[in-house]
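Per your request, structure below.
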C-alpha cells in the first residue's frame, strides 16, 4: 500500500463521457465517513487531450485518478509505472501519485471477480465476455485467473483477436447466438445499453437461458435492457453497481491507504435518488 498524504488531496475521475459517473458521489461519501480530507471531482477528457490531462495531474500534484472509457488502455504508456496486475491486464482504471510518480493499477478485475465468486465457483465454468475493450481485459483476466474457460464475443472478431491471444482464449462473433446457450456466465463489457440508449441490449432475449449468470458491467442506468431480459428469462443477474462498488472500494484503499467503508459506499450509490 502506498502511503497516503495527510494534507488535503484532490482526486479526479477522467473519461468521455463522465458527467453520469457516480464515482465522485461514492468516494466523497466515503471520505466523509472516514474523516479523510480528500475530495473527488470529475473531468471530461476527450481522447486527444489525454496526454495534456496527465501532464496536468503532474503539475497540479493531484493525488489520484479513476479512469473510465475510453482511456483505460491508452493511459498506460503515459504513466511512470504499472502495477504487475495492471501490466498483465493491459489496462488501468486507477492512478496513484506516489511523491510525483504516477503508478497505474487495475481494480476492475476485482469488481468482476468478487461479485461473481459470491454466486458461482468459476473454476472450469464456461464464461462468455461480450466486448473487447478495457473492461473486457479485466473480465478475461479475472476469470482466467481462477480457472474459467473464456470466449470473447465481439461484433468484429478482428478487433478482439489481440485480446484473445493475450490470454490464450477463444474468440467468436457476437452474432453467433447458438454458442451462448452452452455457457454458464455471460459478462457484458460493451457500452450497449448505457444511457441514453437504454432500450438496447448486446444480445437478444432468445440467447439468454435460465441457467445463465448474467453480469452487466454498466451501472447507469441501474436496470439495463439486458438485465430486464435476463430477469424475464429467470437468469441470475449481477448489476453494474456490484462491480462499481468493488472496484471503487479497492480504488479508495489505493488512494487513501484506509480500509473502504463499503456499506456507506453501497448506500450512496443505491440511493433511490440515483437512477
Amino acid at each position: 500500500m502506498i502511503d497516503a498524504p495527510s494534507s488535503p488531496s484532490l482526486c479526479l475521475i477522467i473519461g468521455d463521457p463522465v458527467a453520469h459517473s457516480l464515482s465522485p458521489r461514492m468516494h466523497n461519501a466515503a471520505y466523509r465517513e472516514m474523516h479523510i480530507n480528500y475530495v473527488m471531482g470529475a473531468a471530461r477528457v476527450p481522447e486527444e487531450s489525454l496526454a495534456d490531462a496527465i501532464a496536468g495531474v503532474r503539475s497540479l500534484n493531484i493525488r489520484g485518478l479513476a479512469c473510465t472509457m475510453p482511456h483505460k488502455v491508452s493511459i498506460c504508456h503515459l504513466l511512470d509505472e504499472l502495477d504487475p496486475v495492471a501490466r498483465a491486464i493491459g489496462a488501468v482504471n486507477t492512478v496513484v501519485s506516489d511523491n510525483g510518480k504516477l503508478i497505474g493499477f487495475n481494480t476492475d478485475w476485482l469488481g468482476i471477480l468478487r461479485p461473481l465468486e459470491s454466486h458461482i465457483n468459476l473454476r472450469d465454468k464456461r464464461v462468455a465476455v461480450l466486448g473487447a475493450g478495457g473492461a473486457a481485459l479485466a473480465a478475461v483476466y479475472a476469470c482466467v485467473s481462477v480457472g474459467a474457460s473464456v470466449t470473447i464475443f465481439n461484433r468484429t472478431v478482428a478487433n478482439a483477436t489481440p485480446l484473445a491471444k493475450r490470454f490464450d482464449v477463444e474468440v467468436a462473433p457476437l452474432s453467433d447466438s447458438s454458442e451462448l446457450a452452452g455457457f454458464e456466465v455471460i459478462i457484458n463489457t460493451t457500452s450497449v445499453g448505457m444511457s441514453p440508449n437504454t432500450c438496447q441490449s448486446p444480445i437478444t432475449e432468445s440467447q439468454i437461458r435460465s441457467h445463465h449468470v448474467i453480469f452487466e458491467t454498466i451501472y447507469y442506468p441501474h436496470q439495463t435492457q439486458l438485465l430486464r431480459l435476463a430477469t424475464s428469462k429467470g437468469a441470475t443477474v449481477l448489476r453494474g453497481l456490484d462491480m462499481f462498488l468493488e472496484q471503487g472500494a479497492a480504488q479508495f484503499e489505493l488512494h487513501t491507504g484506509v480500509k473502504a467503508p463499503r456499506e456507506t459506499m453501497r448506500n450512496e450509490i443505491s440511493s433511490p435518488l440515483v437512477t
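The two ends are 34 Å apart (CA to CA).

Regards,
D.
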